[in-house]
């Protein structure tokens, strides 16, 4: 399927690659950037979404891609403003965009939201802790969107693009000397499968480009349990009262 897609942070990097891929697949794409809308500002988000709806009368896909990372220092050395800005962009941004678009999707009875997540959201980080916190929180937004929307035809996914060679990743000391970059072609293939509905069974879960393939995920679909590919508490045993 195709339709109208809204992609935040689409002026460069992964966002630009994904927006280009959608257009190549026949989607009408609304590209967001800091010049188009500040995703952390309620009024700015509302104006942008209203403008898209005025011109297209519907939205079929929201891609929450806009993101940032805080300085790669331990939490005790972090700057509070830098730390919190990362949370605002990576959590408040997707929340506000989802909040603005979701009523339209629910009224239509169809639509998908793809949140650009990361393996960093599944664990704690020694440095750049706000990024890990933000991506963990983003997973909860995805899960809540899935829970509220699935019965009405609206699905949500955590999509980890792997480590693609971009301006942001090049600037991160943790990737100094890295040679095993994720191929953008793998990113696009998996992303389009989420966008067009082939992987709808994976709503509420995380998939990762460069590790997952469309074929492997389709093959694994019959084995999915309620907690597979979600972030949760790991019990210490069968008698753990927090199971």
UniProtKB/TrEMBL annotation:
Lineage, opening ranks: Bacteria, Bacillati, Actinomycetota, Actinomycetes, Micrococcales
Keyword Oxidoreductase recorded: yes
Keyword Oxidoreductase on entry: yes
EC numbers for this chain: 1.-.-.-
Family: Belongs to the short-chain dehydrogenases/reductases (SDR) family.
CDD domains: SDR_c (cd05233)
Keyword set, alphabetical order: Oxidoreductase
Superkingdom of origin organism: Bacteria
Protein name as it appears in the record: SDR family oxidoreductase
InterPro entries to which the protein is assigned, alphabetical: NAD(P)-bd_dom_sf (IPR036291), Sc_DH/Rdtase_CS (IPR020904), SDR_fam (IPR002347)
SUPFAM superfamilies: NAD(P)-binding Rossmann-fold domains
Transmembrane annotation, as ranges: none
GO molecular function terms attached to this record: oxidoreductase activity
